[in-house]
Amino acid sequence: MAKWTKRILLTLGILIVLILGAAILIPILFKDKIEAAVKKEVNNNINAVVDWGDWDLTILKSFPDLTVTIENVKVSNVAPFEGIDLARIGSLTATVDIKSVFGDRIDIKRIGLVKPFIHVKVLEDGTANWDIAKADSTAVEETPADTASAFNIGLREYWIEDGTLIYDDASLTYYMDLKGLQHRGNGDFTQDLFTLNTTTHADTANVVFDGIKYLKNVKADIKADLDMDMANMKFTFKENEATINQLVLGFDGWLAMPGDDMDMDLKWDAKKTDFGTLLSLVPAEFASDLTGVQMSGKAGFSGYVKGVYNDNTMPAFGVKVDVDKGRFKYPDLPSSVEDIYVDLNIASPQGNDMDKMVVDLKRFAMKIAGNPVEARMYLTTPMSDPNVDAELKANMDLASVKTVVPMKEELKGNLTADVRMKGRMSDVEKANYDKFQADGRLILLGMNYVSDSLPPVGINSLYFDFSPRFLALTSFDGSVGSSNIQAKGRMDNYIQWWLKDSTLVGSFDL
């Protein structure tokens, strides 16, 4: 019995040595041939150029599992995206259950990307640079039985370390970038039903939509647990929290992609109701100066997205912002901004355009060192024929700005505004000026601005008179450096420029 035991142990020892030797020697002896074959096969099947640097395949790092590490992975787009790299990855590491390599499903235990740079670009016609797979001319249409087949790749844990993500979509006029991206997720993707736990952090986040910068260099953290229904491709939010600077949002609802359409019912709401959370959304370089600033008042931020998204329709959405008696004061400055009120609702129903969207700014008000500013706006049919009802009133001693906000520049003067607009864009375009109300005046007197980067700028007097036909500069008397300037003139299509982003046209005598 002892003899057989020794023989069995000796045989097992030899097998283990042979397996370890093969795991070490095969990647070394056949590395060039393996690499050339893989590169050829990959590049033959995609509309892009894929390349990478050093790589290693071993079971020694995670015995008995198989680990592959690839350095400097690069996916470069071709026409019409020449010059764009879809992906540049510092290193990619994946650990695979070695037994699964010989089965029907490959079980990836963990996969990670270090210093990835991902650049997603979508053209105005919807062409996307991530759609790089070549069409398979030999493929046959899948039957329902085929589509119900088992999930062939399992995944348990993944992460991104120090990444950069750019999403630039010209079809939606939407741009987003995330830098210093750290992401980690774990869940058993081998199951049809499981919970995915994720954490995400970005050192800076920027979001631009339709030319308007909504977020600039803000910090972002997201913790989200999702119930994953892979059979129905439905994902439901459980415990979750998103932090943007100091604004903390909670999410609720679900997202489903059972076919080509994307169906969703998502809601979010601010978990904190103090005014400082909204104030923290100013750019990060300014938000850092908010340390020690006295802030008070109540604030709310909530919204929803509900409905179907596809090539023909957009889901309904809504956003609500409200501030009640907000106030902030810098500790080293004598004055404060008080009586801040915001009551804003934006809503758009499900549909194939944004023309039914309604922007209702019932009130925007504040007092800057006692100087009142008040505004309101109601906007409908913004795409086809903007219908606006807006009003602005202000009386500002410009020198008081420096008493509430830290600034190195010297500024003084007096600004008053009392302007109203009401009517449809079509009446202005058809010269039906009796149907469009636009009146009021903006006056700037005794202004003087001194900075390190510009010569002194002075405005003794400036008068803008509003009418439906044009915006008249009835008088301008000022100076730049030692040069005196006088001017008068008008801007003929300022309403179209404001509401439809057309080219501003006018004439001036200088």
Mean pLDDT: 84
- Which shape, going by the Cα principal axes? elongated
Helix segment count?
7
Task: Kindly state the number of beta strands.
Answer: 24
State Rg. 31 Å
Note poorly predicted spans.
Answer: 16-21, 144-151
Oligomeric category: single chain
The end-to-end distance, rounded to whole angstroms, is: 111 Å
Portion in strands? over 45%
**What is the helical fraction, as a range of percent?**
10-25%
- Secondary-structure content class: mainly beta
**Major sheet, described briefly?**
24 strands, mixed
In brief:
This protein is mainly beta. Helices cover 13% and strands 55% of the residues.
Care to describe what's here?
The chain is mostly beta strands. Helix content is 13%, strand content 55%. It has seven helices and 24 strands. It has a 24-stranded mixed beta sheet that branches. Strand 17 and strand 18 form a beta hairpin. About 3% of the residues have low confidence.
List the main descriptive attributes of the protein structure presented here.
510 residues, mainly beta, 24-stranded mixed β-sheet, 7 helices, elongated
Q: Helix and strand layout, with pairings?
A:
Elements: H1 2-29, H2 31-44, E1 48-51, E2 55-58, E3 66-77, E4 85-96, E5 106-122, H3 144-147, E6 153-169, E7 174-186, E8 193-209, E9 212-229, E10 234-244, E11 247-256, E12 262-270, H4 275-279, H5 284-287, E13 294-309, E14 316-329, E15 337-348, E16 358-368, E17 371-380, E18 387-397, E19 410-424, H6 425-429, E20 437-450, E21 457-466, E22 471-480, E23 483-491, H7 494-500, E24 506-509
Parallel strand pairs: 5-6
Antiparallel strand pairs: 1-3, 2-3, 3-4, 4-5, 6-7, 7-8, 8-9, 9-10, 10-11, 11-12, 12-13, 13-14, 14-15, 15-16, 16-17, 17-18, 18-19, 19-20, 20-21, 21-22, 22-23, 23-24
